[in-house]
Specification:
Distance between the termini: 48 Å
Strand content: under 5%
Number of domains: 1
Mean pLDDT: 86
Shape: rod-shaped
Order of helices and strands: HHH
Number of strands: 0
Radius of gyration: 37 Å
């Protein structure tokens, strides 16, 4: 009976040790999971803030482009009206042809210049709106790497 009692005590001690080790492992695992969960939540918050900054910058870029295009369109219409008046007021066909040729040349140069300006503005707006999002991929990789190490 002593042997049975001794074996029973051993089994109880082993069970208690296993239970304590399991509880400690569970506690450690939960602590790691909560820590990683907090890191992911922090990443999500930072990403949302970066998206908001990006959207704000993009909106300002679009507003600037809209203002520039409106201004160019208004000036173009005014120039067209002035050229039409000059052509209609010309004293000969040759003079009307010269007015029309000069207007067409200046309108084309103005258009090409405006296209170049708008292209530069769009490039700058795109770069500026992408800047807040630039580091988010690396931040995610850092979160994943930290979680793997922990």
């Amino acid at each position: 009976m002593t042997k049975a009692k001794s074996a029973g005590e051993k089994a109880t001690a082993t069970a208690e040790t296993t239970l304590e080790n399991g509880a400690a492992a569970l506690k450690t695992g939960l602590e790691k999971a909560l820590k990683n969960y907090d890191a992911v939540l922090g990443f999500g918050k930072e990403t949302a803030e970066a998206c908001m900054k990006s959207a704000t910058v993009a909106g300002k870029g679009i507003e600037s482009l809209n203002t520039e295009i409106y201004s160019y369109s208004k000036q173009s219409i005014e120039d067209s009206i002035a050229a039409t008046k000059a052509v209609m007021g010309s004293k000969s066909v040759h003079e009307a042809f010269e007015f029309q040729t000069d207007f067409a040349k200046s309108a084309f140069e103005s258009y090409v210049g405006e296209l170049s300006k708008v292209s530069e503005m769009m490039t700058a707006a795109t770069k500026d709106s992408y800047a807040p999002l630039k580091g988010r991929l690396q931040a995610w990789l850092d979160v994943v790497q930290t979680a793997r190490v922990a």
